[in-house]
Amino acid sequence: MKKFLDDIPLLSEMKTNKNVLSMQVEEYPFDAQVLSASPLYRKSRKLYTELGGSYLPRACSTMRSLMSTDLFKDEIEYTPCETELLWLHAHHRELHDPKDLLDALAALSGISLFHEQNHRIVWRLLPNVPTDQAGTIRYLNFIESLVVTLDLALGDEVGAERSLALERLKVIYRPAGSDKWTRSKNEEYRQYLRTLFYVTYLLISLVDVRDIAKCVEYVFPNQKQMNRVAVRRGLDLSELFTQTTNREWQKRYWKQAQTSLLKLQKKRGGDEFEIVEDPLDLENEFAVVDRVLDAFHL
């Protein structure tokens, strides 16, 4: 509760640019502030709305979101709760147990619009989904790793203190890094993001965590310091997600996901994206990573 009481004024003090208000999602916590602070956040919103994406203000628990295939719909449900959060902060002393209300709100407001809309964007940027199960699983892991990489980049852009506060509210999913690479520019930062992507892909692909550093060194030699910090940061991804949630979702829904993607990608034609089976052999796949990072101006 104490962190919540500190976070709300910190985020409320962020400057809001009136030019972003037309992009704002109503009642999504601190949306205007993050739109004002982050070019990446604005670019994601623009790309999503350009593909016809919309938002539906309706109470949505994290569990219901995770256990569905709604991520293939270009309509994202979210719990409109900004006013309630601000009211709780202003009136917490009047309540018998304000933490009860905070916990109830947290159970219904764990969806990051940035993360969810990036899934819809990336579907359109990748080559076509494979038609076999193993290839489809690798494809889904590849996309999830890209979306997680964008989460990390957003944290860097927002900054350490504010990104932690936004993460606690689940507006964003990952805070800023604390290493020097988060402040690097142009090609150096691009390489840092490629490395973070690869660490995430290894982790989501269930490579033994004890082997990940060696894999990264093999694929990206001659950047030992960057690899070390990227592995440390990348491995901070939730074990519950990598070991359970993601695996169970794929086991249950991979076929529906494949069908939805085939339908989505049918009109454009093109080849299947055949990702190599052994993650140590990833090479040409990084051109697709760069395509996505280019689209987000990273």
Structure description:
The protein has 298 residues and is mainly α. It has one domain. Helices cover 61% and strands 3% of the residues. It has 14 helices and two strands; from the N terminus they run H-H-H-E-H-E-H-H-H-H-H-H-H-H-H-H. A two-stranded parallel ribbon has the order 1-2. Helix 4 links the parallel strand 1 and strand 2. The protein is globular. The relative contact order is 0.13. The model has no long low-confidence stretch (mean pLDDT 93).
Low-pLDDT sequence parts: none
Q: Report strand %.
A: under 5%
- Give the overall shape: globular
Q: Give the helix level as a range of percent.
A: 55-70%
Give, in order, the helices and strands.
HHHEHEHHHHHHHHHH
Supply Rg.
Answer: 19 Å
Q: Quickly count the helices.
A: 14
Quote the average pLDDT.
93
Number of domains: 1
Biggest sheet, in brief? 2 strands, parallel
Largest sheet: spatial strand order: 1-2
**Helix and strand composition category:** mainly alpha
In whole angstroms, the N-to-C terminal distance is 35 Å
How many strand elements? 2
In brief, what are we looking at here?
This protein has helices at residues 2-12, 31-37, 39-50, 62-66, 82-91, 98-107, 113-125, 133-158, 160-168, 186-204, 209-219, 224-234, 239-265, 285-295, and strands at residues 54-57, 75-78.
Keywords:
298 residues; 61% helix; mainly alpha; globular
